[in-house]
């Protein structure tokens, strides 16, 4: 009997939570947060090395004054262009249609307040030169600051092409930091595993930014953060159990519950979430008195943050809930010494997957009798399935790639048939209504559809995070580009599109080719810096995929120069300088054998242009020096 697909699947969020709880990382990070709070009056961070790992904890004390001055807790600022400094430039996408990366304004202001200090730069230099294992951490707004410092450090390494050392950012009770664009970029750069956000079941601070702007008094938030900052710095004092009355606590808890209720039952991005400025990123460790679960799907994180908050009732004051992480971390590690049992209602779990989900629900603080248990179960199932889908999508794409390979092979055969006369670029551009030419054009369109689908899936995070760095896909995309883009250029000029839209390079190039250029450059960064190699024979495909577009522009310049031989000499000189520059570029490619033999075919557009350019140079020899 064939097993169902679910029988072979495992739900691992509770396993990851147990692994995290069993390590000393959380306890040491929380201890460092206390040291940072105690030193907040004199320093913005506290650093300590433990077992060859450098723990750096940041305090959010400086953000409280900025919130008082500018009311910026709910506001956002562009990350890359803030204050005119491109500190996070690698996070700016080259695609103009991608949403701007925004982050919480008070966290970014706090980052800029420490960025120019000598202590911060000394810390950065120590990390870059010492190749240390580093853990950034912070509690509350200090966690937001730790996330921004981690992003800056990752961006600086990305810009310098340096190898990335071990880096982990652990936050406790931190508010949401950025928008959906930031969340997607972190997924795309494979940085999800570098951020771990620990959130307790009834802590309101990580959930505040789900509420509309100005729906909660900023004075209440300031009072809460000031109180927690004080007790973090003085842990031996009695906890602030009486800071908020029971009625006030219940009222605030109910208000936040009402605001986040629409987020609990949806399995995809809703209009409520789309209107929100903030989106989770990284891995979230949701902890309760029953254990800890780890989730990294942003939509699942939103739903579980809301569902766990609305399940049960908070037994501690608002301040205590925000300060309880030391005890929860300690208790989570102790729970591993005991055997967790699944509360059974009715039948035994039908599969390993169902059993894992039951354990995850219990660890997150949601019991089998809670009214939200079915929503939480569906959320974890959705998170598990979407976690597998990128790999499955990639496998399906590999199958599709194999199926369209004959289309590429037929174009290669077409090129080989045309190389001896005028080359396949000019043959395709001047084609008639033959069956062979129509077949090649149809194959060109089929290949374009496949590669457009792949680019769309990459940008919507439906494929593995590193697909644009895998040799298989980078090389296949590059070969397709070198083979087929000349045909796209030929079609563009064949139908006279350049006369209505402008030349191909500036106005007609498809987005996929720009994406493939970027993939190829990133994978072969060192190759482009110093490449003095010489080929022993001409390349199979011209290594500049836009070579024929440059030829078409040069042909137009040549026509313009020929018709203005006795006209405006200044204009003529400018045109000739552009022609001379292209001549040098093209002859260099030919000398290095970076072009295919079709470029040098007797009747190719390039050869025709070259002969006409030589004639024009002779005619203009008395006026200009070449």
UniProtKB/TrEMBL annotation:
Protein name: Lipase-like PAD4
GO CC terms of this entry: cytoplasm; nucleus
Lineage start: Eukaryota, Viridiplantae, Streptophyta, Embryophyta, Tracheophyta
Keywords per UniProt: Cytoplasm, Nucleus, Plant defense
Pfam families for this protein: EDS1_EP (PF18117), Lipase_3 (PF01764)
Locations listed in the record: Cytoplasm; Nucleus
Predominant subcellular localization, coarse grouping: cytoplasm
Transmembrane spans: none
GO process annotations (BP): defense response; lipid metabolic process
Organism: Dendrobium chrysotoxum
Keyword Transcription regulation: no
């Amino acid at each position: 009997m064939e097993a169902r697909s679910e029988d072979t699947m495992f739900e691992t969020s509770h396993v990851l939570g147990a692994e995290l709880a069993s390590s000393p990382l959380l306890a040491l990070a929380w201890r460092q947060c206390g040291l940072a709070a105690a030193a907040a009056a004199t320093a913005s961070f506290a650093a300590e090395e433990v077992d060859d790992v450098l723990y750096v904890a940041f305090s959010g004390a400086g953000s409280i004054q900025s919130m008082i001055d500018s009311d910026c807790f709910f506001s956002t600022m562009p990350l890359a262009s803030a204050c005119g400094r491109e500190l996070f430039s690698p996070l700016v996408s080259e695609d103009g249609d991608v949403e701007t990366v925004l982050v919480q304004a008070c966290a970014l202001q706090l980052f800029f307040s420490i960025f120019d200090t000598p202590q911060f730069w000394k810390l950065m230099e120590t990390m870059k030169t010492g190749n240390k294992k580093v853990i950034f951490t912070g509690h509350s707004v200090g966690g937001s600051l730790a996330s921004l410092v981690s992003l800056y450090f990752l961006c600086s390494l990305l810009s310098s092409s340096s190898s990335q050392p071990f880096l982990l950012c652990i936050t406790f009770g931190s508010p949401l930091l950025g928008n959906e664009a930031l969340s997607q970029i972190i997924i795309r750069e494979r940085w999800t595993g570098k951020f771990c956000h620990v959130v307790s079941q009834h802590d309101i601070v990580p959930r505040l930014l789900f509420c509309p702007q100005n729906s909660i008094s900023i004075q209440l938030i300031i009072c809460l953060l000031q109180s927690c900052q004080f007790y973090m710095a003085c842990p031996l004092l009695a906890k602030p159990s009486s800071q908020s009355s029971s009625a006030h606590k219940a009222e605030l808890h109910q208000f936040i519950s009402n605001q986040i209720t629409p987020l609990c039952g949806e399995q995809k991005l809703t209009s409520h979430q789309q209107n929100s400025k903030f989106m989770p990123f990284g891995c979230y460790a949701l902890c309760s008195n029953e254990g800890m679960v780890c989730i990294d799907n942003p939509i699942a994180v939103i739903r579980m943050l809301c569902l766990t908050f609305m399940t049960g009732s908070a037994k501690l004051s608002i301040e205590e809930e925000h300060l309880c992480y030391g005890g929860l971390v300690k208790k989570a590690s102790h729970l591993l010494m005991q055997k967790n049992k699944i509360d059974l209602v009715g039948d035994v779990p039908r599969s390993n997957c169902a059993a894992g989900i039951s354990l995850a629900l219990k660890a997150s603080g949601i019991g089998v009798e809670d009214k939200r248990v079915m929503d939480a179960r569906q959320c974890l199932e959705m998170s598990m399935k979407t976690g597998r889908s990128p790999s499955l999508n990639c496998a399906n794409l590999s199958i599709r790639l194999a199926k369209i390979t004959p289309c590429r092979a037929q174009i290669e055969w077409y090129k080989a048939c045309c190389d001896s006369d005028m080359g396949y670029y000019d043959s395709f551009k001047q084609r008639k209504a033959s069956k062979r030419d129509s077949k090649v054009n149809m194959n060109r369109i089929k290949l374009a559809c496949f590669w457009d689908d792949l680019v769309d899936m990459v940008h919507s995070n439906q494929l593995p995070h590193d697909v644009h760095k895998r040799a298989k896909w980078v090389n296949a995309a590059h070969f397709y580009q070198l083979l087929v883009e000349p045909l796209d250029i030929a079609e563009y000029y064949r139908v006279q599109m350049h006369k209505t839209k402008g030349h191909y390079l500036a106005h007609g190039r498809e987005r996929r080719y720009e994406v493939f250029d970027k993939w190829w450059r990133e994978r072969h960064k060192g190759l482009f810096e110093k490449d003095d190699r010489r080929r022993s024979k001409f390349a199979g495909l011209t290594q500049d995929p836009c070579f024929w577009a440059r030829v078409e522009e040069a042909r137009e310049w040549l026509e313009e120069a020929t018709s203005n031989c006795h006209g405006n000499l200044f204009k003529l000189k400018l045109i000739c300088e552009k022609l001379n520059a292209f001549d040098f570029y093209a002859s260099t490619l030919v000398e290095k054998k970076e072009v295919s033999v079709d470029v040098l075919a007797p009747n190719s557009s390039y050869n025709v242009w070259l002969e006409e350019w030589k004639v024009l140079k002779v005619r203009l020899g008395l006026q200009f020096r070449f």
